[in-house]
Every structure is written in C-alpha cells, then in structure tokens.
Amino acid sequence: MSTTRPATLTDDLLERLVARVPGTTGATWKLTEVYTGDVLVELPQSTPDDIERAFHEARAAQRLWAEWPVAKRLEVFSRAHTLLVDNALTTADLIQAESGKNRRMAVEETCDPPMVISHYLRRAEKLLRPTRRGGPVPFLSSSTEVRVPKGVVGIIAPWNFPFATGLSDAIPALMAGNAVVVKPDNKTALSPLYGVALLEEAGLPRGLFQVVCGEGPDVGPTLIDNADYVMFTGSTATGRVIGERAGRNLIGCCLELGGKNPMIVLDDVDVDEWVDGAIFGVFGNTGQICMHIERIYLPEARYDELRDAFVERARSLRIGASYDFGPELGSLVSPDHRDRVAAHVEDAVAKGATVLTGGRARPDLGPAFFEPTVLEGVTGDMLAGRTETFGPVVGLHRYRSVDEAVRLANDTDYGLNASVWSSDLARAEAVAARLESGNVNINDALATAYASKGTPSGGVKSSGVGARHGDQGLLKYTDVKNVAVLKKQVLGARPGQDYDAYVKQMLGSLKLMKRLRVR
After folding, report:
1. What pLDDT, in 10s, does the model give residues 377-411?
2. Does the 261-453 domain belong in CATH 1.10.3720.10?
3. Which of the residues are catalytic?
4. CATH assignment of 11-257+470-478, given 3.40.50.2300, 3.20.20.70, 3.40.50.11540, 3.40.605.10?
5. Within a 13 Å sphere around the CA of 137, how many CA atoms are in the beta-carbon half?
C-alpha cells in the first residue's frame, strides 16, 4: 500500500485552489488529510458580505451567459467532458486526501460529472427549446412554453461525494443558463474547486460558478436568502431547515436527504452473486453513501447460510490508508464521524444486539478508521435500528414471509433507496412495486439506479423533495413562461349577439372540441 501523498497535490496547486474562495477577514479552517490528520491547507472562510458579493458577481455573469445560444453553452461542456476525464486521476487524489475514501470510490466519483454531461448534451437542446401548443380557440390561438433560467442557483454539497455533487448538480443548472454559487463542506472543498477550475479552462465564463466556504449555520442563511433556487444534499434535519427558509423566500428547492435503506433477499437468490453485490451496497465508500444499505432482510429458511457467507466476506475486507487500489475500505471522513458511528454500535450492543464481525475503531490505521461491522438482533429502540448510521454498519434480520419482509422494509420514516435480490426477475419486480422508496434496485444495491442518468432519482417520505437526473433534473432549474397568441378577437359575444345565445354556442363548442379531440 502507498500512503505517501501523491506528487500531484503540490502546495502550489492547493494554494491556487483555495485562492478562489472569497474570505475578506482572513479567517481560515484547517483542511486536513484524513488518512494522517496533517493539515493540507488553510481554507478561507466566507462572511455574509463575501457571499453577497459572490452572488452579485454571479448574477452579472449570468445575464450575459443566458444570452448565449444553448448550442454555444453546450460546446463548453463538451470540452469540459474531455478535461474532466483527462484529469480524473488528479481529481481522485484530491478526493482521497480530503475525504479518506479508498481509491476505487474516488476514481468512480470522478466519473459522475462526465456521465451527467454526456446525458444532458443529448437532451438539453430539446428540453430548452420553446414548445408550441394549441390555445383555447382552435386555429385562432396558440400557446408556447418558453423555458427561462431561474437566475443564480445555490448548491449546498455534502462531504461524502464532494466532487460529484458539487459539479453534477451544477452542470444542468449552468446548461439551462443559470449561474451557480456552491457551498461545499469545509472538509472537502478542494475537489469541487478543482472541478470549477477545469470548467473555466473549458470556456465557462469567469464568475459564473462561485465557491463560498464556511460552516453551515454561518453560510447557509445568506446563501439561501440570495439564491433563486436551492439544491441541497444532506441530512433530513438540515433539509427541513433549508426547506423552511426557501419557502419563506418563495423560491424552489430540491432536497436529497437521509435514508435507512433496506435490502430484501428472496429465497431463490444465488448466494455467490448476492454476497459481492451486498458487500458493496453496505460498505462502499465506507458506508458513507446516501443510498447505501443499512438493513438486510434474509429468508428464515436460508438465514444461516446467507448470514455466514456475508459475514465471512465482510471479515475478509481489506481496510487501510492508501492512494493505490489495495484497500477495499478507506477511512471515515473525520474523527467526529467515527465517534458517531461507534456510538450507534455501542448503543446497539448495550441494548442486546450481537456484533458478528467488526465493531471497533482502528486508530492503528489512521485517526478516523472503523471496521466493517455486521450486527444481529438490532431492534427499533436502538439508534442503529431507526436512525441513519452512515457508516460501515449493517443489521441482519430474518423474515418468515415476503409480506413480512415488505412490511419491515417499509417500517421507516425514510424512503430513498431499496434493493431486492432474486433469481426470478418477475418475483423481484413484484416486491419492488410494493416498496416505499424513490429508488429500487433489483439484483444490485444502489449503483444501477443512481447511474441511470435518464431517470429522475430522489427520495420519498423524509428522504427528500424533488429529484436529480432525468428531464426533471434540468427543468427544475428553469421557470416556465407561457406566451399565448390570439389571432382574432373571438373570445366573447359578437357585436349585437345575445349573451344567452353566445353561452349556448360556447358550450356547444366545448362538446364539439371533445368529440374532435381538439385541445
């Protein structure tokens, strides 16, 4: 394993990145390398005045950007796609240093913005093109749907996928003609800053995509109060606060929030295929994925077999601090988060749960490492049974009937992601139809749904409002202008016409239009 910091992460690069962040008071935040705890760079902290100036600059740039033809805007993103792919390994180095994730997850994260670009390069022109429709009077009237950008979009990006959410949520907003002000988490600001620099190298006008930094309570209110729309990914508790403030400001918002995501394994599953998929669904990104699996329901008839196979594979996972592809698990994002995960495990054990493997912090590997952990006997009165743990921890449960499994899977306030496994796709699809979740993966844990950029992805219940991806993922960043044309003044009684006669004529016309299917 290679724990030496990559040569790409020079002091010059890091200083150039943080120089993009407005911070007039000189206050900074120590951004550390998670593997070691060493300070990488001092990150400027933006004041409310700094944030307002960022919005002012973004708004000025947006007025010019919105005048560009859509095709010209898309040319920028075609070039950006190449730059993002060509510089993916440097991006992965930054992601690993600031978040502590393993190499595989860091590289896969770099792929998300290019995938989003590819999708919307195909769809954006059609979605943003004016659409002419009929009006109330056939042949004499028309109505045209015109899509206009909202203005400046505020994006609050989480630390678990800082590059993907920092850029991928901004790309359709920019394509639609908006400016963007993004607030990454302090811990993980470097990779989105690098992504913005690459977009500007591709031709994105300077000032159109701003980055501000600071703690959420200090930065969030000013960002929301100056934005025309807000995109947030994070906890349900914070999402409620953001949604309330956006509502007071009468602006729209999209909130992708927490999950306590279930997996139902049917009794005909192939154990070898299932184990590898389930292991990634639970422990990918060290369990720090909004859509990762925290509850697995196993059929009673095969419970021991499936449990033992899963535990054996979890116990063999390679965990460590390395910038190469050796470890299968990396670090948690911070010592504070390690303590939160540990508290969930300790609470479960104190209330009667059994640790089948793992369950301990690993300070010998680094400040924030925690073992892949499998629990049995988790109940609803435990933190790990009801609250999102967001770490490498899963509870195994047995069920007697599919009806019971569905009931248990749906017994949560959340509804972000679910997974069903079976050798019979028809059986799996029947179960999937009964699950209360914005995303359901069949014979996969999470990646297939999230990587399907043509289909909206969001949560239900307490897991969010709105969605990213699909047509909705771009159109949410636009307002609709209805331009209606009446070619001849025919709405109303003709001169000298009795109004009773006009009403009779109008009502008769409605019946005729229905028969002729005229809209």
Report:
1. 999 999 999 999 999 999 999 999 999 999 999 99
2. no
3. 256, 290
4. 3.40.605.10
5. 13
